[in-house]
Design a protein that fits this description.
The chain has 294 residues and is α+β, with helices and mostly antiparallel strands. It has ten helices and twelve strands.
Amino acid sequence: PALVVKSNKENVLIITQENSEKWEVLSKIDIAFPLVHGPFGEDGSLQGFFEVLNIPYVGCDHYSSSLCMDKGWCKSVLQSFGFKTANWITFNHFEYSPQKCLNALKDKGITYPLFVKPSRLGSSVGISKVKDEKELFPSIENAFNYDSSIVLEEAVTNCREIEVSVLDDTLKGRKKTVCSLPGEVIPSSKHGFYSYEAKYLDKDGAVLNIPANLSEPLLEQVQNQALRAFKVLRCRGMARVDLFLKENAEVLINEINTIPGFTKISMYPKLWQVSGLSPEALIEKLVASALLDT
């Protein structure tokens, strides 16, 4: 059966897989808080489902969820608004060939090392860092095992990996989009990048500096870029914006996560906590923001 958790004067309804009366349970939901990552959870499918059922929900709508989930389309939109990103190309499985790939990399001036990524997955699943042509094609085939569309992206070297939590705060019945203090991810050298293993399987896979050590001008620049990216992509409610900060202070947008993690090790709530917002207060603000969107 569904589980009802009582907190103060309010009830929270949690649907479990064992529930045999899901449709009846859905009619009891006042608001949904989706925390499902990857395809069908973060790509707009679940959001569209809630919209069809007229169920209010926390977070980005189906449009921005779908857009931010697709790495290629997201970069295209960001670049059209003047944002800088890593140099990249994308291929669908039906149009891909090794020679086409090599030609496209040459035409775009993309050099090694580079990343091969499934276009529409998260948590670094299926991602490979490639240092030469010998590693390229096996990595491409591996990425195609996860998605019919892939992105090949030039590695941004000599940079810092910065993350910013963004929230639609509610003040007197009106929304105001605000940023947390940024954090910095320093992956362990043994992983080479912030891989799935570094994120979830190796407790020493990365060092998280929360907050990041940034000068006031850099702090303002990073937060402004995160806020603008959030708005340009029509995000709402919440998102985590991941950026590269180069040695010359140039900021590149890496990606936008519309359903950031909410575990005890996740950056999104940690950044808000160091910014003065407790996890409980964060949840309350997200729910209040979602109710304003209905």
